Amino acid sequence: MISSSHSLTEIQRRIDEVKRFLSTSLSIANVHTVEFYTHDVWKRFMAVPAEEVLLAFSSGSDHQREPEVKGKEQTRTTFGFCNDSNQLIDTHELLQAAKAHSLPGLGVCMSRDELLQALRHNASEGGDPSAQMGAEMEPDEFMNSKKSHEVQAMSEVVACLAKRCAVKQVIDVGSGKGYLSSFLSLHHGLRVYGIDSSSTNTHGAQERNRKLKKFSRLYQKHKTSKAHGEATQSAQEELIDIQSGINGEDEVLYGAGAEILSREEQQKEDEEVKVPPVLIGLSDVDPAVERHSEPIPETEELFLSALSADVIQPTSTRVPPSQLSAEEREKRKRENLERKAQNRTNSASAVFSPLTSYVTAETELRELINELEDAVMVGLHTCGDLAPSTLRMFVAKPELAAVCSVGCCYHLLSEEFDPAGQECLHGVCGFPLSQYLRNLSWFCGRNARMSACLALERVSLGQGIQMESLFYRAVLHVILRDHYSSFKSEKRVGNVYSKTKSFVDYVRRALRRLDLDESKLSDGDIQDYHDTYRPRMAEMHAFNLLKVALAPCIEGLILLDRLCYLKEQENGSSSALVQLFDPLLSPRCYAVVGLKSYASRITS
C-alpha cells in the first residue's frame, strides 16, 4: 500500500484550516478583473498602498520565511484583514498565511520519489520496470520540454502502479494526442486504451503512434546501414520527415527552451474571463529551420533503445531474394510468417488503442473495451469535471486497481452549491467531491476557481502578468458603462488585444466585435479614459498579484477534497497527494493517487 501517515481525520483537519483561511480571503480571488474600476475594487478591499504589495512580491522575502506569530496584533486582524473593516491592512501577514495554507505549507503531499519507493517496496520483482526495457528515454525530440517532463515523470509512476497491482492494462482518460499513452505502450510495454471525447484527437494520436513505430524501424535500418558505410542522405531525410510528422506542425523539434500552450493555458486567453495569463517564454528559432537543419541527435539512440522489443524490428544485412536458393527463400517466407504471428501476439499485450468516447462515472468500461482486464486508470491534465469523474470511476469499478489523476482547468468544474454556477451534468457535480465538504455546502465560485489556475512559481520568478491587456479590458468596461448603459451581451470581446496597436485601436475593434456604435466616441474621448486610469494601473497589478498568492490555497482545497473523497471509501484502498512535476515546467503538478488492496478487488 501507499505509505502515508495522513488519515481521513487529518485530511479533514487540513481542509478546515484552508477553509478558515479562504473564508476570510476568498473574496479577493472572486473579484472579476474586468470590473476592477467599475466596482472600485481597490477601495473596497485594500487599506494599504499598491506599492507595498508590489514591493512584497518583488523582494520575495514574504514567500521565503515561515509565518511569524504577531502577538497582540492578531487580535485586530485575521490573516492580515482588519476585523472591523474587512480590508487588507497587513500584506505580510496575508502572504505568510497564504504560504502556510498551500499544499507544501500544510505538509500533506508525498514527493514522487517517496511514492516510487513505497510502490517498489516488497514488489514481486525488484528494480525499475522501465530499466528492463532499455536505457533512460530522452523524448525531447518528439514533444516540447513541458510535455516531455510530464510524460516521463508520470509514466514511471503509472508503470510502478501497474507492476504493484500485477496488471498489464492502462486506461488513459482524456488522452488527447496520446503522448502519455504512446510512451506507456512503447517504453513500458503496457496495453493502453486512450479515451478522448474528440475524434480529431484520437485519430491524430493513432497516426502519431503509427509514425513513431515506423520511425523506430527506419532508425534501426539507418543505424545498421551507417555501421556498414551505406548511409545515404535520402535515408536521413526520410527519418527527419517522419520525425516532423510525429511532432506535428504545432510543436518545436529540438526546442528544449520552447513552450507550447496547454489546453488550460489556451483557455486562459479568453479575455472575457480575464484571468491574468502567465507569460510563456517562446523560442526565437524558426521551428521549420530547426526541423530541417539539424542532424539526427545522439539522444535518439536513447529514445529508440528505450522502446519495447516488439516495436523495434531487428535489422540485418538483407540478401536480395534473387540471390537465394529455393530452400532459402522458403525458409525466409516461413520466418516472416512466424514473425508476423509473434508481432500480433505481442501487440495484444503492448499496444496503444485510441478510442473516441465521452466518459462519466456511469460509463460501463467493459462495454467500451471488449478486452478489458484489471487496469490502472490515469489522467494527465484532465479538464474540469473529468478529473473527479475519473476518481468516481476508480471507486465504482472493481476492474480498476489503481488511479493516478492530474487535473487542470478548475474554472470548468461544476459546483454543487454555487448559487451563480451552472447546472451539474446529470445532477453530478465536480466540486465538492467529498461527503465532508458536501455536508458543509462549501463552494468557491467561478472567479476563484479561475484564480486557482494561476502559476505562483512562475510569477515569483518574473514570468509576470500581461497587465496591459487586463488594463485595457477593465477600462473598456468603464466605457461600456458610461456610454452603452452597462452593455451586456452574449458576445465576447475575445483576444482583440494581440491585434491592436494602441488603446484607441483596441476599443474600436472591441466595439465592432460587440456590434456597438463606435461613432459615439472620438479618438480623443477614448484616449482620455486611458489617461485617466493609467495612474491606477499599479493597483490592478498589485491586486492580481494577491490573487496569484491565493491560487495555491484554492487549488489545495480542491485537491484535498478529492483526496478526502478517496479516504472516505471503505474498500481498503490507500491514497495520497503526490507532487509529480516541477511547478515551473508544469504548474498543475499534483496527482491524486489511489491503490486498492487485492482483497477489496476480488471481493467487489
Question: Could you give a quick summary of the protein structure above?
Answer:
47% of the residues lie in helices and 9% in strands.
What does this structure look like?
It is a single chain. This protein is of the alpha/beta class and 604 residues long. 47% of the residues lie in helices and 9% in strands. It is built from 24 helices and ten strands. The strands form two sheets. Strands 3-9-10-8-7-4-5-6 form an eight-stranded mixed beta sheet, with helices on both faces. A two-stranded antiparallel ribbon has the order 1-2. β7, α16 and β8 form a beta-alpha-beta unit. α1 runs antiparallel to α23 and α7 crosses α8. It is globular, with a radius of gyration of 27 Å. The two termini are 18 Å apart. About 16% of the residues have low confidence.
